[in-house]
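Ticket #4471: structure output looks truncated?

Reporter: J.K.
Steps to reproduce: submitted the chain below (139 residues) through the standard prediction queue, then opened the result file.
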Amino acid sequence: MSGRMLLESAVENERRNKMRVEIDHVAIRTTEFDKARAFFEDVFSMQCYREKGQKPKRSLWFLEGVQLCEVEALPEGENGYDHFSLGVEDVEAVMKYVEKEYPECEIINDHWFRLPNRTEIELKPFRHAYLKVNGTTEK
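Returned output as attached by the reporter:
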């Protein structure tokens, strides 16, 4: 491999390292909260680590990366998909990059944006880095 190819490869690896990303969680809306919880606990042995809210607007998070969001009804023609969350090293830098390079995206707040097709993406610090630093799953 030539010196130039090695340099280009090193630059590409460095770029990829700066943009490391992992799926933090996927959020699912459900009108049958208790049944959905039982399903994920039974079928996949998922473990709930956080709950909030009261019926009819409860939410819970499983360690395995699934969030359940209780709703009274799903809009006609929609499934239970709500959003997905990505863990990144630098939330602020990614948000600035999206805002600058992708003006067609709608910035919702300092860690949420919406793609042109209306898909909402939430950004969070890496879950694994958070667990390592704080020794807890609480975010």
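Triage note (M.O.): checked the attachment and the full token line is present. The mean pLDDT is 83.
Status: closed, working as intended.
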